[in-house]
Design goal:
- The protein contains 8 helices and no strands.
- 73% of the residues lie in helices and 0% in strands.
- The two termini are 36 Å apart.
């Protein structure tokens, strides 16, 4: 579809059809009346017709004044509507950003988003250090124990028992809980990305982190990236856990970026 490439053309294209039709009718008529009036004035045609002159002048002025007033009023109204719609869009974005953040936090024992972000980053660092240790390194068992203890504090086991290993998070209740959590995250992000985002018209929308969050939502807890569905081997559990934490980290960064709307 062709879009007008000048400000005047866009202004005219955005004007309601009824106002455009009235303007097309009255403005040429006003122009004709104006020049006829000048012609009559030059030939003393108005002499002795003061009342008719007043009526004629008022009609000529109306032909110009009515379209101009309607065009300006429409523009003012449109500008006010745009401001109102932008404010409503930002308000809804704030509400949905809050709901997204609450859904994200609902899966963890974190005091706030900053706390969750910090602890997830620390867990990622622990895993990165763990992956550098050889299987026969005596320090590896201690590193695994420290990681699981920190993870238990962030996401307590429903049974209350410490998790035995990185590849054995198979408690039925816990698996159901994280699955529900993933569903909440995906629903809230879908609303933000597909319903709220288009209404913002680019108002500070964090493109880069939003793209990462979209990717994270698509991959979150899928096969191979879900430590609750890993093969049970420790290496597989480490890899799946690392992917899970990376996805959570991306979601945390998106939630933080969206706080501008709150």
């Amino acid at each position: 579809m062709h879009r007008p490439n000048t400000a005047i053309a866009r202004f005219w294209a955005e004007t309601p059809k009824q106002i455009r039709r009235l303007s097309v009718l009255l403005l040429p008529l006003g122009t004709v009346l104006f020049f006829v009036g000048l012609r009559l004035d030059a030939t003393d045609g108005w002499t002795g017709h003061d009342y008719l002159l007043n009526v004629y002048s008022g009609l000529t002025g109306a032909c110009f004044g009515i379209p101009v007033a309607l065009l300006l009023l429409n523009r003012l109204t449109s500008a006010q509507d745009e401001v109102r719609q932008a404010e409503q869009a930002r308000q809804r974005a704030g509400e949905e950003a809050t709901a997204f953040q609450q859904s994200l936090l609902s899966g963890f024992e974190a005091s706030d988003l900053a706390d969750l972000t910090t602890r997830v980053a620390a867990l990622q660092a622990q895993l990165a250090d763990l992956r550098l240790k050889r299987a026969d390194d005596p320090a590896r068992s201690e590193a695994v124990h420290d990681f699981l203890a920190a993870f238990d504090r962030l996401l307590p086991s429903p049974s209350g028992d410490p998790r035995p290993s990185l590849g054995a998070l198979h408690h039925t209740e816990e698996r159901a809980a994280v699955s529900e959590w993933r569903s909440r995250i995906r629903v809230r992000w879908t609303v933000l990305n597909t319903e709220v985002r288009p209404t913002l018209h680019g108002q500070d929308w964090p493109e880069a982190v939003a793209a990462e969050a979209q990717h994270a939502c698509e991959r979150l807890l899928v096969q191979g990236r879900n430590p609750w569905k890993s093969t049970g081997a420790e290496a597989g559990g480490v890899t799946a856990m690392l992917y899970f934490l990376q996805d959570v980290d991306a979601l945390c960064r998106a939630a933080t970026a969206l706080e501008i709307y709150k």
